[in-house]
Amino acid sequence: MPTFHLIAPSGYCLNQRAAARGVERLAQQGHQIENLQVITRRDERFAGSDSQRLADINALAQLTGDNIIVMPVRGGYGASRLLADIDWQALVARQQQPQPQPLVICGHSDFTTIQLGLLATGNVITFSGPMLAGNFGAETLDAFTVEHFWRAISNETFSVEWNGEGPQCHAEGTLWGGNLAMLVSLIGTPWLPSMPGGILVVEDINEHPYRVERMLLQLFHAGILAQQRALILGSFSHAKPNEYDAGYNLNKMVEYLRKHLAIPVITGLPFGHEPQTVTLPLGAHAILQHAEKSQLILSGHPTISA
């Protein structure tokens, strides 16, 4: 039975009840949960001081044993403060050892900065997927999210299908991305992967459609989008237009983007800050096919033992 090792590199968990509910659910399923003290730890808006949160990350290099799932309590903000002091070489070395098994590292939101840093510094594959409080601790546990989580981390090859929109296409490459704002914040730093020929997947929350467009255009003007074989858009929760927009919305933003990009843009993937989300291995090999439906076939990622 896998062990869940909790980390808290970002914001303090305001919803302590949700975190406790997540721990209780996982324990009832027979999982061990380690590092529980990070749930209640607080320093201002953060889940502990910078040194405490940094220690959470660097300590992962010393974790021993197999079937360990590393999962943040929640997102928020704070991981960006840690990037310059993370021992990337030690973490990469831990993941490259044949024994014990590589850690299965899963999260999203602010954690994207660390996930992309691992991919940039050592091609370390992590999973964009659920976290403790928001997903496993939700008032109603979403069966779709749970099923896709275990499918992704238990199978060497698996597929994700959804009712996407976009041009018919077939593309192969390395899947990468995550939270759009976090990805854009890494442009010009050592922690943004160079991924020519990749399949980029992005999502965000609480960003107006014009802000989503502006961030995607920054990737476009930086030459990053032109290097990709496809762009997949996940959920953009609470991206609501207002009266001033006069008809401008997310759909209009996507139309504008498609006119300026030579690569296929596929929408509708249930991934990101939604209660219902798939789990995606960032850095894995991906085959994207879109006709009547959209499909990703994913392989080459770390898994837990059955």
Automatic annotation (TrEMBL):
Domain LD-carboxypeptidase N-terminal: from-to ranges: 6-129
Enzyme class: hydrolase
SUPFAM superfamilies documented for this protein: Class I glutamine amidotransferase-like, LD-carboxypeptidase A C-terminal domain-like
Keyword Hydrolase on entry: yes
Keyword annotations of the record: Carboxypeptidase, Hydrolase, Protease, Serine protease
Pfam families the record matches: Peptidase_S66, Peptidase_S66C
EC number per UniProt: 3.4.17.13
Domain of life: Bacteria
Cross-referenced InterPro entries: Carboxypeptidase_A_C_sf (IPR027461), Class_I_gatase-like (IPR029062), LdcA_N (IPR027478), Peptidase_S66_N (IPR040449), Peptidase_S66C (IPR040921), S66_fam (IPR003507)
Molecular function per GO: muramoyltetrapeptide carboxypeptidase activity
Domain LD-carboxypeptidase C-terminal: residue ranges: 172-287
PANTHER family per the UniProt record, alphabetical: MURAMOYLTETRAPEPTIDE CARBOXYPEPTIDASE, MUREIN TETRAPEPTIDE CARBOXYPEPTIDASE
Family according to the record: Belongs to the peptidase S66 family.
Name the UniProt record assigns to this protein: Muramoyltetrapeptide carboxypeptidase
